[in-house]
Every structure is written in C-alpha cells, then in structure tokens.
TrEMBL record:
InterPro entries according to UniProt: Inosine/uridine_hydrolase_dom (IPR001910), Ribo_hydro-like (IPR036452)
SUPFAM superfamilies: Nucleoside hydrolase
Pfam families reported in the protein's UniProt record: IU_nuc_hydro
GO MF term list: hydrolase activity, hydrolyzing N-glycosyl compounds
The name this protein goes by in its record: Pyrimidine-specific ribonucleoside hydrolase riha
The species this protein was found in: Quercus suber
The Inosine/uridine-preferring nucleoside hydrolase domain, residue ranges: 35-350
Transmembrane segments: 7-24
Keywords: Hydrolase, Membrane, Transmembrane, Transmembrane helix
Family statement: Belongs to the IUNH family.
Protein origin, superkingdom: Eukaryota
Length: 612
C-alpha cells in the first residue's frame, strides 16, 4: 500500500509540474492586439481591412467588422461585400455586424440594437428618417453610393462567394457584435466611417468602455497649420470645414471624442500628404502577387478610369489604409504614449467635434435636441455647445454667406481651449520614404505593397478560381415561328413584390406578353445597385436578351440645383432602412445570393442611362 501511495504521489507531482510549466508558457505567450473595425465600406475602407487582415495574427487579430450604415454605402450591399472579403482570406471567424431595428425614444431612452441607419439627431423609434447629413453624398454614379455598393462592378467579377450572407432575423446587428467583442476583454477600435455605431454603444453601455484600449479615427480636418479645409465637395458653399466621416453624424463624433478613451486622429491634414500618386499606382500595377493585391489594384484602376480621370492622382488619397498603417505601427510598441510610428508625424492637440453653430440657445426649428422640448433630449445643457443652429441640408440659408465662405461648422474637428477641449494625438503629415533611391516617396507606400503581397495568410482564391467551370454565357430564348404577343415594358422599383411580378411576366406565354425591356426606378424600395439582382434573375430565366435601364436616382425636383449628383430625400425618407425595408429589398431577403450569377452586371461605363 505504501508503494502504491508513493506511486500516485509521484504521478500527481509530475502532473502538477507539467501543468505549471504549460501555464507558465501560456502566460508568456504574446497576446495579440484584438481589433474591431467600424467601416462604411468605401474603396479605401476595404484597402484598410485587407491591410489589417494581412498582419501577423500572433500580433494583431481582427475580431470583428461593424458597418456604418448611414454614410458611403448601403447596408444590404455592404454586408455581403464584407462577408466575401474575409472568406477570400480564410477568415470566416471575423464577426460581421450591420443594422438593427432598435430606436431612441422621445425621452432619450436608447433601445437595444439601434441600427445606425440615421444620425443620432434624426434617430426616432424606427429605421426611417431624414438624410440631413447624408444628402451630401451622391447616391448614384460618379463615385457615389451606387458605384461603392458594387465596387464599380469589380466585386461580383472578382471576389469569391462564401457561405455567410445577410439573412433576415439572423444577421447579427452592429450593437450585438460590439457588445460581444468589447465585453470579452481589451480591444482596439478603428473607425473609418461615421461614428454612430460606437457612439450608440458608449451611450448605452458606459460600463464597457473600460475595455476599449484605444480608438483610432480616420476623419476630421484640424487645419491648424496649413488651413486645410474639409472635403465636402458637394457642400463647400455652406460648410467648408467638415470632413465626410465626422459630418455624417457630428453628435456621435462628439460622444466618441468626449468618451474619455484615448484617441488617435488621422485627419485630412495628414492623409492629404499621401495621395495615390502615379508612381505608387504604376508600382502597384507591377506588384500584384496575391489575390488581395489584385482586388485592391483593380478597384483603384477602375476608379481611376471611370470617375476621376486625370484628377485621380491628386484627389484620391490613402485615407483609411494610411490610418490603419499608423494604428498598427503605433501598437507595435508597448506604452507608446507619444504615438511613435513609421508612417506619420504626430503631435497632441486639444480638439472637439462641433455639433451646432453659434449663437447657442437659439430655437429656430433646426435642432431636434432642443426645439419644442421643455427638457432637452439626452438631458443636454440648455445654452450649451449642442444648442445652436444645426445644419439642415446642403443649401441651408443660415450657412450661406453672400459672396463669402460658408459659415456652418457642423462636423468640424476644431482646436479649442477650455472644458470642451479633448487632448488627442493627431497625425499631421505622412513621413517620407527612408530609402532615397526608391521611386516611392512615402514610407507607408512600401509597407502597404509589401503587406498585401507577402505570402503568409494570403487569399485562397478569387471567383474564377473558386468556380473554374463557370463560363460567362448569355442565354437568349429562341421563339422560332411563334407569334409574339403584346409588347410590354416593365417599370419596377425592385421591391420583393416587383420581383414576383417580374417572374410572373417572364412565365406568361410569349404569345400573350412579349417583355421587351425593364426600367428600374431607384427612388423607392431598393437602392440602385440592386439592379444586379434583375440581371441574375433574367439569367436564371434564360432571358439575357432583355435590356435593363436604370432610371433617375432622384424623384422629381429632388436633385440639387447646383450639383445634380446630390439632392434631397423628401419622399424616400418614409421607407425603412432596416427590416422589411431597404436592407431586405437590396438582398431580396437573402435570396439574391442563391441566384446564378449573370455575366451582365452594373458597370459604370456600360450601363444604360435610361431605356427610351
């Protein structure tokens, strides 16, 4: 018995030593920086996402992507775009959140799962509402939301299609994903779109903000040294100060800046010093050794030749990708309070996000936080910084100065003093390349190209290598000697009911109805990019001969009189953005992903203007 007892004592000692050794080694293993990216899925955004996904996973791990649904892309198209990028990179572990049908009550109570479809100032108890700030973004062609939603037609031609997709009632919301990932432990948040999602999270869950180690923001324009204005090209006559990401929801940005969480800002002041130059573009063209590099370059190339033309090299910047690079470089060093990094010069500034215009305390009908209320919404201070005139639209008379510069500053990241000042680490300019013999003059250019092209963790396939037997074949019916029936042109707004009607028309004998053309009206229950679902449905039915024309983006008298690519949303504001509304129509309630892929798709240069 003594022998057996000693034996088990020895065994237990060995197990204890091994367990302690393993525990010691686990504790000594470096814990990767956990990253949550909140993005509006513009071209520069997915360049940033791919740059982040290509980092060494033992050091940096992208945990989640949440989608900013009130800015440069539409939720239904953006979410499936995001699903396919991690799928290409073998990263289906990355959580993706979008939308939500929660609202904010009149007394300021924030309900669960506010979708972020609207800026906070316009958010009520539904997902329908006004486009106070978003009307500055073109909804159609010319680099607007239509082009971004389909990535100029490149997305469907290049990206593989994964299993994950938007599915009604099953899709995780942005707030659910944020709560899940931030609750788990310390995490870094990178914002490359509007700040609505994170602001709602912080206002609803103040006890969890301690888990956010740092917030990196691409946005704003401080202009403290060189007087750089904002970039609202559609609204500079009324507001020359704001940058799009902050302007999309100034009150949300204020909440983020004043959250007490350490913030690093990469504003236009810095990104304007690192354009996609011709030298960089030409070098990139020769450096496409991975699918992710090919996708990024083809996207830039298409943008170059279809939107900006010769102005591309001086007007398209590295924006979000550069911000991601600065964030990664800063995080490489522990306890890096001064923001030392390879790519940008940094300095601390005292800034705030402007949400309303002086004089404060006015009641002119422009400010829903105060107007008509005995108690301001969210218990805001009467006569405080949020109580002034809030810009109501592109041509707000309050903002326009005759023969002068617009005076509205909504969304301006201004340098200030006093209690409103937040001490923020700010990038001021891109650092030059340390290699004087290189044709690339910025250090980040080298990092971006090297990162996208290096072999580890490279993309698995693109669409054509995922489906090697796929052929782009157009199918046209042969009616032979049949006597064709009445000629019909179908005008549809791409709601689910419209697609049912289209299928019915296609199934009616051609001797009765001869469907000759389809006109799409993108002013109703779906966004313009949903035109691709029509192409796929026609392809499934063997009717690729039917032309599809895209109608005017705006309802009558809603386009801007100065810049016709932007305009008001007087009527479409009544349509919900969330469940049962645009997100479901834009995905055909998830069924669109199951349709066969047509060779025809929206292409900026090839789409019909309008069938007449």
């Amino acid at each position: 018995m003594v022998v057996h007892g000693n034996f088990w004592v020895v065994v237990l000692l060995i197990i204890g030593v091994v367990a302690a050794y393993n525990l010691y080694n686990v504790e000594c293993l470096p814990i990767p920086h956990r990253i949550l990216l909140d993005t509006d899925v513009d071209t520069d955004d997915f360049l940033a996402l791919l740059y982040l996904l290509k980092q060494n996973r033992s050091e940096f791990k992208v945990e989640a992507v949440t989608i900013s649904a009130n800015s440069w892309s539409d939720a239904g198209h953006a979410v499936n775009h995001i699903y396919d990028i991690p799928y290409m990179m073998d990263r289906d572990d990355v959580a993706v959140g979008v939308g939500g049908d929660g609202g904010i009550l009149e007394d300021g109570t924030i309900l669960p799962n506010v979708g972020g479809y609207l800026p906070i100032i316009e958010q009520g108890n539904t997902t329908a509402g006004y486009c106070r700030y978003r009307q500055a973004i073109p909804p159609g062609r010319g680099g607007g939301r239509l082009d971004i939603d389909v990535n100029f037609g490149i997305q469907r031609a290049f990206l593989p299609q994964g299993i994950r997709k938007y599915t009604p009632l099953q899709q995780p919301t942005s707030q659910q994903v944020m709560i899940d990932k931030i609750s788990w432990g310390p995490i870094t948040v990178i914002i490359t779109g509007s700040h609505t999602n994170l602001a709602i999270f912080l206002m609803k869950n103040p006890h969890l903000k301690r888990n956010i180690k740092h917030i990196y923001i691409m946005g704003g324009s401080v202009g403290s040294k060189n007087g750089d204005p904002g970039n609202l090209f559609s609204d500079s006559t009324s507001n020359p100060y704001a940058e799009f990401n902050i302007f999309a929801d100034p009150f949300a940005s204020y909440q983020v800046f004043h959250s007490g969480i350490p913030i690093t800002l990469i504003p236009l002041d810095a990104t304007n010093t690192i354009p996609v130059s011709k030298n960089f573009f030409d070098t990139f063209e020769k450096s496409q050794n991975a699918y992710e590099a090919q996708y990024c370059f083809q996207s830039l190339k298409t943008d170059r030749y279809t939107t900006l033309g010769h102005l591309f090299y001086t007007n398209f910047y590295m924006w979000d990708a550069f911000a991601a690079g600065v964030a990664i470089s800063i995080m490489h060093k522990s306890n890096n309070t001064n923001g030392e990094n390879e790519f940008a010069e940094m300095e601390y500034m005292n800034i705030t996000a402007v949400t309303s215009n002086k004089p404060y305390g006015v009641h002119d009908g422009s400010n829903p936080f105060f107007d008509g209320r005995d108690v301001p919404r969210f218990n805001l201070t009467k006569g405080g910084v949020h109580s002034g005139h809030v810009q109501t639209g592109l041509r707000d008379p309050f903002c326009i100065v005759k023969n002068g510069t617009g005076k509205c500053q909504d969304g301006y990241t201004a340098e200030v003093t006093g209690p409103e000042a937040v001490h923020v680490l700010v990038a001021t300019e891109a650092k030059p390349n340390q290699n004087n013999d290189s044709t690339l003059d910025k250090q980040f250019y080298i990092s971006f190209l090297d990162t996208l092209n290096r072999p580890p963790d490279t993309g698995r396939f693109n669409f054509t290598t995922q489906f090697p037997y796929y052929k782009e074949v157009l199918y046209k019916p042969d009616f032979g000697s049949k006597k064709l029936g009445k000629t019909v042109v179908f005008d549809m707004d791409m709601s689910a009911g419209d697609f049912l009607a289209l299928v019915y028309l296609l199934k009616v004998p051609v001797e009765v109805i001869n469907l000759k053309a389809i006109i799409v009206s993108p002013t109703g229950w779906a966004n313009a990019a949903t035109i691709d679902i029509i192409y796929d449905l026609l392809h499934m039915m063997g009717c690729d001969d039917i032309p599809v024309g895209l109608g005017d983006i705006f309802a009558m008298n809603q386009s801007d009189s100065i810049l016709s690519s932007v305009g008001d949303c007087k009527y479409i504001k009544a349509i919900p953005r969330g469940s049962g509304g645009l997100i479901d129509s834009d995905t055909l309630y998830s069924l669109a992903r199951d349709l066969p892929r047509s060779p025809r798709r929206y292409l900026k240069l090839c789409s019909f203007k309008k069938y007449t």
